[in-house]
Amino acid sequence: MNTPIRRLFLISVIMFASLIAMLGYRQVIEAQDLADNPQNTRKVFAQMRIERGLILGSDKSELARNRKEDDLYYRTYPTGDLAPHLVGYNDPTYGQVGLEHSQNSYLTGTADEVEIVNLVDMLTGKQKRGADLKLTINPKVQRTALGELQKLGKSGAVVVLEVQTGAVVAMVSNPTYDPNQLADNWQLLNSDPNAPLFNRATQGLYTPGSTFKLITATAALESGSFTPQSRFRDDRGEVVIDGFTIHNYRTEPFGEHSFQEALSQSINTTFAQIGDQLGEKKIVDYMQKFGFYEKPPLDLASDEIMASGRYEDGELLSTGDSMDKAQVASMAFGQEQLLVTPLQMALVAQSIANGGKMMKPYSVESVADYNGTIVKQARPGVWKTPLEPGTASDLKDMMVKVVNEGTGSKTKTSKVQMAAKTGTAEVTGRGPNAWFMGFAPADNPKYAIAVVVEDSDSGGGIAGPVMRETMLSALGL
Amino acid sequence: MQRNRELVNFLPVVILVFAGFASVYMARSAQIDASSLSFGLLFVGLFLAVHLFLRLAAPYADPFLLPLAALLSAIGIMMIYRIDPALAAAQTRWMMVGLGLLVVVMITLRNYRKLDDYIYLCGILGVVLLIITVFLGINENGAFLSIRVGSIQFQPGEFSKILITIFLAGYLNSKRELLSTTTWHLFGVPMPAFKHLGPLITMWGMSFALLLFMNDLGTSMLFFGIFLAMTYVATARVAYPVIGGILFIAGAALAYQIKGTVRLRFDMWINPWSDAMDRGYQIVQSLFAIGDGGLFGTGLGKGYLLFKNGDPIIPALHTDFIFSAIAEELGLAGATALIVLFMIFCYRVFKVAVVSDDGFSKLLAAGLGAAFVLQTFVILGGVMKLIPLTGITLPFVSYGGSSIVANFGALALLLLVSNRTNKERAS
After folding, report:
1. Which chain A residues are closer than 8 Å to B304 by Cβ?
2. Fold observed for domain A42-135
3. How far is B53 from chain A (nearest CA, A)?
4. What is the pTM of this model?
5. ipTM reported for the complex, 2 dp
6. Which residues, other chains included, contact B220 with Cβ-Cβ below 8 Å and sequence gap of 6+?
7. Is A49 on the interface with B (CB under 8 A)?
8. Helices (DSSP H) in B259-280: which residue ranges?
């Protein structure tokens, strides 16, 4: 009977060996996959034991801090509904969004730059703590912009950029929400048709309307065929291109006028003809130069940013998608399946104000470990160079005229000379979306802005004061 | 001398018990106080007492078995303490009952071969215990494994397993000549006469009935596996495990069709991720815990095993899933060491079977060894999703009074067998 017993033992050894092999597979080879499984809450729980870094505004006020309960840290947001779309939230039940999500490795101190510091501290027995983020967001400007939108009682967004650096000074999406009360309001927030959780500033896609004329104008001026003084005629307030009739606002005829007046008075018929003359490729080239068809490299997770461009059924069309002449003419004044984000239009304003250089947008100024040592400092960099300094200067002059003599008079103030461009895009079933974008001071631009207000009055004028008050707040005037 | 070797073998156990308890205690309360040390002293004292008893009652018995059982029990109590200190105290009391049973068995069954005369009594008692469970069983997670006696729960299956092993050892020993005669061949495999397939069919039927009535795949598989292993040892005929294996697969396939619980366990083995919050929750959480352990584990007391209110994240963590907790906190290194301990234990058991000189002893030791290996494989393979999960205790380690008491009872039989064999070889 000894031979069968020995064989039985041999089988037992094989069984034990297969257990060890499987265990090794689970604990070494598959371990990372198991840890990353979205159904695995261990990571979130483990991170709740780490004292997360603070998130501070540019004035060092706290936008996110911690509340300790037993051994775990919970996030609280002292400024409530001020900037939840950018700052985001960190919640064991609802997950992470915003900078809380994209900057998680810094906030938990697990990023490489921070880890080295913590290893030393671990050896000396100090408690592990995440790194603090200092944002470029100025809570005062943020509050003004949010307050202006709330005063109107409209959905919308405001993005303010620092012209020379691309730093995000304010990023507002209205309606907003209080990230401290997610648990109480989760159902409501998700079922609200106004989508308060949605970041309109980076994800909201709006028809640009006349604001797009800045891109067409850039393409026209740089083509060499047009100057700001080029003359046009418009006797009927409408023009037929390829069998398709294009109207001015209220089919108003403007008579003989210059290129400059065409922009400041926002004359659709003239831009349709310019577009027709430039052709599809030229305009699309300039869209790409301005960063369309790409997600702006803001420091949020890329799934929280949308690219601007031509869309069909919610999908971004390729740059090579061909259009007929009427479509090209419509696109030239901002219609025809074009959809843009407020962030994109703020970048357009910023690049014109900055002499043609579009800066990479960023909202994290610096990352400091808890000793106060800066482990990462934002370095402003050029993202695109969409236009020549001369063209930028011409456009700037035209945008000043928009404020002083044209459609942008609602932003006019004696305190500072602003430069602006307006736009209205009809929306079926409700009021149009109103755009105001621009920068100030016009002679030495410091801040660029884009404002969009949904369901506005027919002329879109109600968006003007939002731009004016926000810019004055940014300039400290 | 065997007992001196046993004493030496206890040294690493003593060190591990003190070190292990000190670290678990520190993880829980950030300091060592007298109670962690006094537990260590109690534990070591108990096994020292049993060791002294063995010096008198079984001086020739295998010197590894008791220290290994002590080490496995210590690891179990340590882990249970980490999960819930109150349960560790209860487990310690049950371990004392188990050691008491060991002493009683070794005194009363001094001449264990007398059991050969009472095998039918053992067999009937074993079956009766199972039938009682079927009729009086308490439904736990769909399986009927426990009955309630007064205020305590009791799992008759743990004892039935040993009684039926005793019965099979005696029965197969007396019938092995008959069972190993070849009368015909099937595809070149020598086959026993049809009439001698009777026990095989009976055992298969019984295992299948267990599955149907107790709703428990693990126990059913364990009983049938023990039977096949012992028949193979008795007859040296590969035909038995082969036919048995085919019958088992047929039974399992039938069970899959008619039993919802079997289908559920099988489906959750193939893909637990499809229902990770409900039906696949337990195995998925077990995999997360095991994966979290990595090479060296999170450290004792530092794993993510309990919710804030102290409830375990994995249901049945202290019983069926204790290995998941060990794998998380001690990592691949610690968990592999535990598996190696089981392997050494099983090596010693099979060695007892090989060196013993009579059929009954050989079959008894080999049967208990096979039971030990199968049970370990079924639960460890289950929690790491190597095989479909089925709830069964990890010998000596899992929380459970019946389990640890029965295991010390089985250990007593093994010590008796090896004592007798070694004594005869010495003289």
Report:
1. 42, 45-46
2. Penicillin-binding protein 2a (Domain 2) (3.90.1310)
3. 30
4. 0.67
5. 0.93
6. B207, B208, B210, B211, B214
7. no
8. 260-270
